[in-house]
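for the writeup, i need someone to sanity check this before i put it in the appendix. the sequnce is what the collaborator sent (i think, or maybe the updated version? ugh). structure was predicted straight from it, no edits. if anything looks off just tell me and ill rerun, i have time this weekend
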Amino acid sequence: MSSNISKLDFLLTHEEQGGVAFKNVIRKREIISLLDLTEESTIPEIAQSLNISVPTTTAIVTELLEDGIIEDCGKIDSIAGRPASHYGLVSEACYFIGMDVRDTYINIGLLDFKKNLTLSELEIPFHLENTAESLEQLIVILQKFINHPQVGNKTILSICISLTGRINIDNGYSYSFFHFDEEPLAKHIENRIGIKVFLENDSRAMAYGEFHKGVVKNEKNVLFVNIDYGLGLGILIDGKVYYGKSGFSGEFGHIPLFSNEMICHCGKKGCLETEASGRALLRMFGEAVKSGSVTGIVSASSELNTVTVHDIIKGAQQEDVLSIELISKIGYHLGRGLAVLVNLLNPELIILGGALTNTGDYLYLTTKIALNKYSLSLVNSDSKLSISKLKEKAGIVGAALIARNRILSFY
């Protein structure tokens, strides 16, 4: 197993220029990429697609078979009537880790070479703070997962960590958390773990997972809204994830939509996030309880500092009236913000994801009502509104797919 893995690692990372050997490496990479797209192909199909002779293709496929990177998936009758072998990637050839960092917990998962999520651990307790201690806890959780009995004997080619805030995916810097020195965060973790590490914004990672393994089918223009403690957005335009000039696209929560004079955590006033997010929900809940509203979540206002967003979500699921009213209000504000995006972008599909979607119709229905009210009817008639299919796993699936794609794209 280890020799097969080292050969695959060599293929995907070797950068030597020139020579017959390197040309052979490039052709192997091309075949791997083709099989990644087609899932299975015959030698004639590979030769035709890559414009390589059949004898050369046969020789390279044979080497990849011997290396344990691809496998013979069996024979299928061809048009000429002669059964032809189909070849595909070997699931166990290598693995990738996706780590989704939330405010109060971490989700983490393992993806095989054929993009199957083979192991996941959800809601590992964690407290996200911009401190060295919080970063150390993150690394400990990651290392513990790598040492898991079902992970430790496998080859991990790369890891992607999804983190809230502004992320530069090219240099691995996080500008919102753990930006303590000149060394990029990705490089710091990579040096500690010993495996290639990439960073991605959490909303975009969740969107990426949903685009490729979730509710998206044939839609090419899609918005994914992450409604958690904050409010983020992933954008798919013409089938491609949109990053923007500096890679900071999707700051949906900071549209200045309200004249409420509330200072957002970004430092500006009136952001959508101050009225449509988990933080807004906590604030509204506290104000309501202090004003005398009855709820089954707390028995006295002195207990408010212990209440979390998940407590309110659970309250709504258990039909706590105050929780339902406030989540419905959050949904209405969210729909008003989405109307701006619908009028601007006219997307085919809008996906609601993140923790607050666990309240189901309490959030969804008021979001849809406000969206229809504030957007142009001719425009919104073409835009579907849906709930995430992957739910809590969207972030780890997306991050692991990004880790995989960054390696296969030979960055």
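The radius of gyration is 24 Å. Residues 321-345 form the longest helix (25 residues).
thx in advance!!
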